[in-house]
Amino acid sequence: MNVPGIAFLGIASSPAFVREPEGNGCIERFFRTLKEQLLWVRDFTTLEELAAALEECLQRYNDHWLVERLRFQSPRQARQRLLALEAAA
Known about the structure:
- By secondary structure, the protein is an all-alpha fold.
- It has one domain (7-88).
- It has three helices and no strands.
- The relative contact order is 0.07.
């Protein structure tokens, strides 16, 4: 499936199947958060402005958001913990 606009971002389409959302639950929640915290509350006049805001939002999410399913760690903390566990094994 070719979705206009995502190819130029370097993203491949990976659609979910009907009644099988389990595989996309995490990303669906992230997109909801992104919409609620950024896209629905700000207007952007240029793609560069949007790209900068997305980068800032992504960095804030990775560094500061405490995610329950990650044991109330930020995504960056959880990744560092996982990498440390793999290195110790």
